[in-house]
Amino acid sequence: MVKVHQSSENLDSTEQRIYTAAVDVFLEKGYDGARMQEIADRAGINKALLHYYYRSKEQLFKRFFADTVSAMFENISMVFTAQLPFEEKLRRFSEAYISFLIQRPGLPLFLLTEIRLHPQLIENTMNDLKLKSRFTMMKLLIHEAIEKDEIETGSALHLMIHIVSMLIFPIVGKSMIMMLLDLTNEQYAAIIEERKSVVPEFVLKTVKKS
Amino acid sequence: MVKVHQSSENLDSTEQRIYTAAVDVFLEKGYDGARMQEIADRAGINKALLHYYYRSKEQLFKRFFADTVSAMFENISMVFTAQLPFEEKLRRFSEAYISFLIQRPGLPLFLLTEIRLHPQLIENTMNDLKLKSRFTMMKLLIHEAIEKDEIETGSALHLMIHIVSMLIFPIVGKSMIMMLLDLTNEQYAAIIEERKSVVPEFVLKTVKKS
DNA sequence: TTTATTTTTGACCAGTTGGTTAAAACAAAT
DNA sequence: ATTTGTTTTAACCAACTGGTCAAAAATAAA
């Protein structure tokens, strides 16, 4: 019988090695470009064994995608639970989000691409997430601040989009940014690091009351 | 003999129909997901004829990619040639860029994805572009303004990234934005339209002198 | 040791993929 | 009408793809 797959198991188990290899290949090549053979090779096993643990490419991908997407969102929402003034929340959020993205720079572009290319593949995952995100995340951050009269009452929606855009796009659009501004890899990395503070300060200059 | 392919020919020629079909399929499915058979079907022709006009999938893709990328960049740089104060340039740039992206919403995500997935495929195109962009585009916009003392001397680099991010990301990250903020398609479209003015005004609030 | 169970493998398969080929249909020129 | 060159097609192919299967190792249970 095929056993139930739990996330916390022997870290060097065949199953884990397969999963790790799959993550690498999917992130690198995307769903369409990923080859089961390559996943098997990188895990150091036979292709048949791959199907023994994960029935199909689709199932393997779905599992990875669900894990990834929830990591991306849950890792972040922590910041919002803290009871802090808007200013401090924004600073911590920027710091946390960019730190997270630096560790997984390929993630957001991967997610956006796969959502567009294979919406049916990830429908279930996205529906789960929709329910969660509706009650957490950014909405709180800004509406709360307006109610508490901490910031100017402009368009909260646009402000949220400004923030998310300035934090995520430089990661997603690395190639574009580097080309447009003619940067080396080191310069690029330094700039991203700077944005942890540059972005919140830029935003605060515009919206802070008093 | 295979004739030379020119861009301005009989608009309903077989060659053009193939090209149009190819553009649609590549944009929709990406390079890996695109199928020569589907391109042929949509062009209403035999697959062999497709190879008669464009030798290979690779060549067909390269042609499309080069066209696309130059359209994306050249369409924009016009704004910068005009002799106008920074404020006005920024407003026109935002308006022009978002208008362009509304008409081709799939383009930036497509470009970023293919650059990451198939850098070797598009090497030549990108090198050409690098040379061009080094002397045009955004660099001028902001450095000029600083020299003319129109805006505060902060980090010009970050300011450029802020602007590009706020303009492009909402298009690239449509699915993410819609989910995060729980928007309908109509609400989303309205917000993008608003950003033509919201983004430049937001930026100007922060950097304008006096 | 034997038996039962799980893990791993090599060989294989049907369907798909980008691409080719030889011949047919068509058009233009003589 | 015949020749010449171009455009289009049907049939085909080798390579690859995700996936299967029966049997062999390896491991655990008796």
Provide key terms for this protein:
homodimer, DNA-binding, disordered N terminus, mainly alpha, 210 residues, elongated
Written account of the structure:
The structure is a homodimer of 210-residue chains. The first copy, chain A, has 210 residues and is mainly alpha-helical. The first copy, chain A, has eleven helices and no strands. The longest helix of chain A has 25 residues, at 57-81. The first copy, chain A, is elongated, with a radius of gyration of 20 Å. The termini of chain A are far apart. In chain A, 30% of the residues are buried. The interface between A and B is large, with 50 and 50 residues. The structure holds a DNA duplex (30 and 30 nucleotides).
What is the helix tally of chain A? 11
Largest interface: A-B, 50 and 50 residues
Helix and strand content put the structural class of chain A at mainly alpha
| Contiguous runs where pLDDT drops below 50 for at least 5 residues of chain A | 1-9
**Shape of chain A, please?**
elongated
On the 0 to 100 scale, the average pLDDT of chain A is: 86
Element order, helices and strands of chain A? Answer: HHHHHHHHHHH
- Gyration radius from CA atoms of chain A, angstroms: 20 Å
Helix content of chain A: over 70%
Oligomer state equals homodimer
Distance between the termini of chain A: 67 Å
Number of E-state strands of chain A: 0
**Beta-sheet strand percentage of chain A?**
under 5%
Sketch the major β-sheet of chain A. none
